[in-house]
Amino acid sequence: MGSLFRSETMCLAQLFLQSGTAYECLSALGEKGLVQFRDLNQNVSSFQRKFVGEVKRCEELERILAYLVQEINRADIPLPEGETSLPAPPLKQVLEMQEQLQKLEVELREVTKNKEKLRKNLLELIEYTHMLRVTKTFVKRNVEFEPTYEEFPSLDGDSLLDYSCMQRLGAKLGFVSGLIHQGKVEAFEKMLWRVCKGYTILTYAELDEPLEDPETGEVIKWYVFLISFWGEQIGHKVKKICDCYHCHVYPYPNTAEERREIQEGLNTRIQDLHTVLHKTEDYLRQVLCKAAESVYTRVIQVKKMKAIYHILNMCSFDVTNKCLIAEVWCPEADLQGLRRALEEGSRESGATIPSFMNTIPTKETPPTLIRTNKFTEGFQNIVDAYGVGSYREVNPAVFTIITFPFLFAVMFGDCGHGFVMFLFALLLVLNENHPRLNQSQEIMRMFFHGRYILLLMGLFSVYTGLIYNDCFSKSVNLFGSGWSVAAMYSANHTPAERQEMVLWNDSVVRHSRLLQLDPSVPGVFRGPYPLGIDPIWNLATNRLTFLNSFKMKMSVILGIIHMTFGVVLGIFNHLHFRKKFNIYLVSIPELLFMLCMFGYLIFMIIYKWLVYSAETSRVAPSILIEFINMFLFPTSETSTLYSGQGHIQRLLLAVTALSVPVLFLGKPLFLLWLHNGRSCFGISRSGYTLVRKDSEEEVSLLGSQDIEEGTNQMEDGCREMTSEEFNFGEILMTQAIHSIEYCLGCISNTASYLRLWALSLAHAQLSDVLWAMLMRVGLRVDTTFGVLLLLPVIAVFAGLTVLILLIMEGLSAFLHAIRLHWVEFQNKFYVGAGTKFIPFSFRLLSSKFSDDVA
C-alpha cells in the first residue's frame, strides 16, 4: 500500500565495473531489472563511442537471424519457442556463434539461389512445351520446303503478304513465338501493326490453364503467339517489341522432325529437373529445420548482448581506462539486490577484483517508480496517461481503483448490462494465461489488458443497477413495494376520514385516466424500499421527474465529495515535502471556499431528506431557492429549512469571502516576508529538490540552500535568500492565476459532475426505448406466431443491447469517467510532471522477441 500511495524512494548510485567483468555484471543486472542507467556520454556521438564495433556486430547477427526466420517462415516450418531466461552469451562464445551463423547464411543463400535457378529453368521448359503444343495448329508448312536464298531481292510490284509469291521467289520467312501476359495482348497487336506496317502475321491463342511466372512467381493467364515475318529488318523490330512487352520468346522449330526432337528433349530435361529440384528442397528443409531449433534462443541472446553494449556505451572510463564508471537510479529497497548482482557478475567472470557501488548525493529529481501487479496495472495506466507522477507525490491510482469503476457505474447503472459486462471480464480473468489472448487483435488486446477494470465496472454497475432498480430497463420487486394501493379506497376508512381525504371508489377508478397516491392517507406509504428505488415508480407517470431530481442531487453530492477529497490529498503532499505554509495559506482556504458554499449545499440536501417525510413533502422548501437566497439576502421573510438559517448562511458567506484574499495574497506575501529574512515555519526538507509546475518560486527560494541527506535544516529559522532568484511579481501572478482557476473551477467542475445524471438518464432511456421497440412488440404477438417471432426478436434485442448499450454507451461512460478523474479530481493535487523509471531489464525485451519470431 505504501508503494502504491507514493513512488519508491530512489537514490543515485555510482558503479565501478572492472573492464573484464563489466559485461557479466551488466548481464546480471539486466536479468534482475533493478536500475536505470544515466548516459554519461551525452556529448559523444553514437559513432564515436567505445563499443560501437560490438553494437555493429550484434546488428549484423540480427540481420542474419532475421534472414533465417524469413526463410523458415517461407518454408512453413514451425518455430519452436525456446527458453527466454537464458543469460546473454559469454564473450568466448560470441565469435563462435557469429562464425556459425555466417557460415549457415552463406550455405542457405547458395542453396536457395540454386533452387530458384532450377525452378526458373523448370518453369521456362514447361512454358516451352505449352508453346510447342499450341503453335502446332497455327501454321501448316511443307516438310520439303527449304529456303534456297539468303539474299532478299527487291519486290517493288509484289505484295509482301502474298505467301505464294514468297514461295515462288524462295524468300526467307521468319517466325517468332512465345508467351505474353493476358492483359498485354491487345496493345501488343496494335504495336506490331503500327511499327511493322502490316508486314507481319500475328496468331495467338489462350492457354487452358494459368502458369507461374518464372520471374515473379505469380500465377497468371498467358497467351501463346506466333509471328510470321519476312525480312531481316522486320525481324529485328519484332524482337524489340517482344522485349518491350516482356514476352517470353522461345525458338520455333522449322520442321516437324525438329519439333518432335525438341519435345522429347524437353520432356527428359523436365523429369531431370523435377528430381534435382526435389532433392534440393529436401536438403534445404533439413538445413532450415536444424536452424529453427536454436534460432529463437539465439535471437534472445543477441538482443540481450546488444542491450548490454548499448549500456556500456553509456558508461565512462576512468583515467587508467581499466575501470568503467556508471551512474544509475536505484530504489533504496533494491540496493542489496544491486550489490548481489555485482558480486554475481564478478564471480562468473572469475575476476580477482570485484566490482562495487556507492551512493552519491544529488539535487536532481529522480524518476518515478510505482510498483504494480496485474490488478493495479490497468488503473495506473489510466493515471499515467494524464501524466507520470512527480517524484514522491500522492499517487491517485490507489483511489482510482474504487472511484473510477464507481463513477462509471453511476452513469451505466443497470443490473442486467452490468452483469453481462462482469461475466465477459470474468471470462477474460479466468483465461488470462491463454496465449492466444495476448496475440489477438488490437481491440481484443485492449479488452484483455483492462480485464480487471471491466470486472470492477461490471460489478459496480450491478450495485448501482440495484440502487436504480433497473434490469434491462425493467424494475424488479424483490422486497415488496412500500406503497399500498388498497389504502386509497374509501371502503377501508372511517366516514370522518372520507370527508377529510381524497379517496378512491369504483367510479373514480373506472373513469379516471390517472390515479394519484396520497402519502398523507394512513396506510398508503408504509416506509421506504429496503434497497434502492421503489419498483412502483416504474408505473408512475412522474417517474422521470422523480428520478431526475434524485440523480441530479446524487451527482452534485458525489462530485463535491470527490473534489474535496482531492484537496485533502494535496495536504498530504505539502506535509511530505515539508511545506506547511501551503497548508495554511492554500489548502485550508480552498477547503473553506469549497465547504462553505457547496458543502453547505450537500448539508441542505441531506437535511431535507432526513427531516421531511413523504407526508410533509408538500410543505418542504426548495433547495434551489434556498441556495439562491443565501447570496441574495432577501428582505422579506421566506420559509426556511431550520431555525437560525439566515445567521449561519451569513457566517458561511463571510468565511467564503475572507478565504478568497487569503488564497490570492497569502502565499506571495509570506514568501516575500521570508525573502526579507524573517523566521519561517514548516518549510525545511531533506533529500531531493522536487521540481513542480506550480512551485517555481519555492524551488528558486530553496535552490540556494545546502540540501544534504541526514541533516535537518532551518530548525531555528530560515536562511536569507538571494535577491536575484526572487521575483515577487511572477509569484503573485502565478498564485492569482491558480486562485482564479480554483474559484471558477469549483463552480464549473461541480456542474461538470452533472454528466453523471445526464449519462445515467440517457442510458436508462435508450434501454427503455430498445425494450419498447423490440421485446414489447414480440411479447404482444398472439400465441400462433408469437413463438416463431420471439426467437429472432430476442436475437436482435441481444445484438443491439451488446452493440449500443454495452459497447457504445459503455465507451461513452468510460471516457466521461476518465475526464472526471483527470480534470475535476486530479488537478486539485496531482502535478504529473515526473519521468517514468525505465529499468535496464531483459524482461522488457522479451515481448519484442516474440513479435520478431512471429
From TrEMBL:
Coiled coil: 94-128
Function of the protein: Essential component of the vacuolar proton pump (V-ATPase), a multimeric enzyme that catalyzes the translocation of protons across the membranes. Required for assembly and activity of the V-ATPase.
Sequence intervals crossing the membrane: 406-430, 451-468, 554-572, 584-607, 651-674, 785-808
InterPro entries for the chain: V-ATPase_116kDa_su, V-type_ATPase_116kDa_su_euka
Keyword annotations: Coiled coil, Hydrogen ion transport, Ion transport, Membrane, Transmembrane, Transmembrane helix, Transport
Subcellular location, record wording: Membrane
Source species of the chain: Rhinolophus ferrumequinum
Family, as annotated: Belongs to the V-ATPase 116 kDa subunit family.
An MF annotation (GO) of this entry: proton-transporting ATPase activity, rotational mechanism
Membrane topology: Multi-pass membrane protein
Main location: membrane
GO CC annotations, alphabetized: plasma membrane; vacuolar proton-transporting V-type ATPase, V0 domain
GO terms (BP aspect): vacuolar acidification
Name of a matching Pfam family: V_ATPase_I
Lineage, uppermost ranks: Eukaryota, Metazoa, Chordata, Craniata, Vertebrata
Name of the protein in question: V-type proton ATPase subunit a
